[in-house]
Amino acid sequence: MSDCCSQPGLLPVATAREKLLNALQPVSDEECVDTAMAAGRIVAKPVTSTLDLPPCDNSAMDGYAIRFADLQSGKPLEVIGRAFAGTPFTGSVNPGTCVRIMTGAVLPDGADTVVMQEQAEAEGGFIRVSGRVSVGDHIRQRGEDIRDGDALLAPGTRITVAHIALMAAAGVHTVTVKRRPKVALFSTGDELRQPGTPLRAGDIYDSNRPALRAALSEMHLEVLDLGTLPDSRAAIAEALQRAAREADAIISSGGVSVGEADYTREVLEEQGEISFWKVAMKPGKPFAFGRLGNTPFFGLPGNPVSALVTFYQLVVPALTHIQGKTWTAPPTLQAKLQQPLKKKPGRTDFQRGIFQNDAANGLVVDPVGLQGSHILSGLAAANCFIVLPQDSGPAQPGDLVTIEPLR
Ligand SMILES: Nc1nc2c(c(=O)[nH]1)N[C@H]1C(S)=C(S)[C@@H](COP(=O)(O)OP(=O)(O)OC[C@H]3O[C@@H](n4cnc5c(N)ncnc54)[C@H](O)[C@@H]3O)O[C@H]1N2
Ligand code: MOO
């Protein structure tokens, strides 16, 4: 990896992110999807409950629905019926009586308390209650979770599995979400072969494209996979033109540095525009951002760790914004560094680390070993980035450092 501390013109990471977010428009198209199919989608129209939840007072336990005041006399209570979830008891619990009730069954009229069956002794159609009972025990109140008309999800929310449960329970069977943006993806390099095919001398497998495809799918984006391209201006130009026609954003890997076969950035410059090139980050310095027509372009460095670090630090915020969700910085933690870290002032370092809880020291973090931008084993072993600020120098064991847990 090259050092760039003395090089002027590198954009600080936060400035690069800000420029990206300011330059991009969220997709405006919306579509209606089944609630069950909406995981990961971005809410476009507010989601409102269509009912109270629970819809009526019901039992939280298997037991007996009673009138609390009846316990004063200490007399046995007559069991006059049964209430099941889905099959309510239709009569009324009058003084001196009770109803056998199951979890989830509607609380019968007249009852105000449920006694767990473990606290009731049944004999000959009557029960005797023992132990401490308070009025209202084990009753789930109508509407205590959600009220009819309550706002459930605001526009811009990314729908989680829990949101799907919430909407389904509240009777919301369809939801209006943003259209999934389509992201065109290609990698460049004469040396790149497809996994599953033989390697010639000097070849390597294309690892960036499958990794980026997976990362895009994880974000619930549509992918237009344009394949692995040779180091050829014509091939790159053709892919860029198609991507600009068919996609909402373009991601490439490779060809953004200064080598004699690094054509991606050059072709973009000829056919579109480069808004910025080179960010003060390590790895990932040669990251380029621009446009072809109205379609934003993210040029990731070819080095595999650099490609993924720039994807997570710069492209994820940008694509999140395009999806229609406000991007917020991921939570960070402070952890005690266990080993020294080399670092020169000039770029924000995203070193790969493994953090864990230590009985004596609290949260601690170990760098994964080799930190080169070609070292995929370290990235694969890591569970966090150790984020060392742009102006900082080396870090020592015992220093508190900022870590950003990886998903
Ligand atoms: N003289 C300089 N050389 C380099 C500089 C520099 O500032 N001055 N920057 C270095 C840094 S930092 C990076 S990062 C790389 C980025 O270069 P490119 O984006 O042009 O990428 P390539 O040259 O095409 O490839 C770099 C490296 O990564 C391998 N690679 C490329 N694509 C893939 C892929 N899809 N899957 C797996 N591996 C890939 C490629 O074989 C090279 O080894 O430039 C430095 N050089
Ligand atoms: O340091 Mo490069 O910027 O290998 O990614």
Automatic annotation (TrEMBL):
<comment type="similarity">
    <text>Belongs to the MoeA family.</text>
</comment>
<dbReference type="InterPro" id="IPR008284">
    <property type="entry name" value="MoCF_biosynth_CS"/>
</dbReference>
<dbReference type="Pfam" id="PF03454">
    <property type="entry name" value="MoeA_C"/>
</dbReference>
<comment type="function">
    <text>Catalyzes the insertion of molybdate into adenylated molybdopterin with the concomitant release of AMP.</text>
</comment>
<keyword id="KW-0501">Molybdenum cofactor biosynthesis</keyword>
<dbReference type="Pfam" id="PF00994">
    <property type="entry name" value="MoCF_biosynth"/>
</dbReference>
<keyword id="KW-0479">Metal-binding</keyword>
<dbReference type="InterPro" id="IPR001453">
    <property type="entry name" value="MoaB/Mog_dom"/>
</dbReference>
<dbReference type="InterPro" id="IPR036688">
    <property type="entry name" value="MoeA_C_domain_IV_sf"/>
</dbReference>
<dbReference type="InterPro" id="IPR038987">
    <property type="entry name" value="MoeA-like"/>
</dbReference>
<dbReference type="InterPro" id="IPR005110">
    <property type="entry name" value="MoeA_linker/N"/>
</dbReference>
<dbReference type="InterPro" id="IPR005111">
    <property type="entry name" value="MoeA_C_domain_IV"/>
</dbReference>
<dbReference type="InterPro" id="IPR036425">
    <property type="entry name" value="MoaB/Mog-like_dom_sf"/>
</dbReference>
<feature type="domain" description="MoaB/Mog">
    <location>
        <begin position="184"/>
        <end position="321"/>
    </location>
</feature>
<keyword id="KW-0500">Molybdenum</keyword>
<protein>
    <recommendedName>
        <fullName>Molybdopterin molybdenumtransferase</fullName>
        <ecNumber>2.10.1.1</ecNumber>
    </recommendedName>
</protein>
<dbReference type="Pfam" id="PF03453">
    <property type="entry name" value="MoeA_N"/>
</dbReference>
<keyword id="KW-0460">Magnesium</keyword>
<comment type="pathway">
    <text>Cofactor biosynthesis; molybdopterin biosynthesis.</text>
</comment>
<keyword id="KW-0808">Transferase</keyword>
<dbReference type="InterPro" id="IPR036135">
    <property type="entry name" value="MoeA_linker/N_sf"/>
</dbReference>
